[in-house]
Design a protein that fits this description.
Helix 2 runs parallel beside helix 5. A hairpin with a 2-residue loop joins strand 10 and strand 11. The longest helix is centred in the N-terminal third of the chain and has 20 residues. By secondary structure, the chain is an alpha+beta fold.
């Protein structure tokens, strides 16, 4: 005979791939598993992260962070996050590989809630789709579009493909590279990407292209009209328009 419920300590079930949960129950179980590094709720279904391989996942992830991190350094009012929990709606709590957002004090569309999580849609989300292309290009894409993520980047490493979707009139439109092989963000002026160089792991060219974007008139105007002015430190401006990790 089992002991009465009142005499037993209630333990939460562990998260499992494919569980159908509310966002509240998902969060309770996730928080009860501190060893777990990545789990997502997409359309009410739990997806568990797997161990990361270096070449198809970890290294491309780092290259995206180098590119976006340098843009963030040069652009006041912009914030960058690595694998943050994002509370999008009652059925969706993804943990994107990378987010780039405009600070809420500068007019951004998301905010940090009382628990320190992102609430609402970041302006830009990027995913490395080495092994989850179907999720990233189907379910997640639909969720991000519905919630108003303005730009969605999906790098399919094994397939050597990079998709950049721009939210226009309620739907995603694919941005294509121009004659110079560059895609230019519609939301973040000066965020330029030499796509072929990124796929070829030519990070010098990636950074040279970004440097040109940061020197553009549109990026300078974007910085000038930032909703919140930022004061430079005594050692010089934190937001000087020069790359920190690469200088020509």
């Amino acid at each position: 005979m089992s002991a009465p419920t009142s005499n037993r300590q209630r333990t939460l079930p562990v998260l499992e791939n494919g569980d159908l949960l509310s966002r509240g129950e998902f969060e309770r179980r996730y928080q009860a598993m501190p060893h777990l590094k990545k789990a997502e709720l997409i359309e009410g279904i739990v997806y568990m992260g797997s161990s990361l391989r270096f070449e198809p996942q970890a290294e491309p992830h780092a290259n995206l962070l180098v590119w976006l991190g340098n843009y963030k350094i040069a652009t006041p009012g912009v914030r960058l996050g690595d694998n943050p929990t994002v509370r999008l709606d009652l059925d969706n709590e993804p943990q994107p590989d990378v987010v780039l957002l405009i600070d809420s004090n500068c007019g951004g569309q998301s905010r940090l809630d009382d628990d320190g999580y992102i609430e609402g849609a970041p302006e830009l989300v990027a995913e490395i789709a080495a092994s989850t292309a179907s999720i990233d290009l189907r379910d997640k894409k639909r969720v991000y579009r519905r919630n108003g993520v303005k730009e969605y980047l999906v790098w399919q490493v094994i397939d050597q493909r990079f998709d950049w979707f721009s939210w226009q009139d309620g739907d995603y439109v694919s941005l294509v590279a121009d004659q110079e092989g560059i895609i230019r963000s519609q939301i973040f002026p000066g965020l330029w990407l030499a796509v072929s160089a990124l796929l070829a792991e030519d990070m010098v060219k990636v950074m040279t292209t970004l440097q040109a974007g940061l020197a553009s008139k549109e990026h300078q105007e974007f910085c000038k009209h930032s909703a919140v002015s930022r004061q430079p430190s005594a050692k010089g401006s934190r937001y000087a328009h020069k790359l920190i990790l690469f200088q020509s």
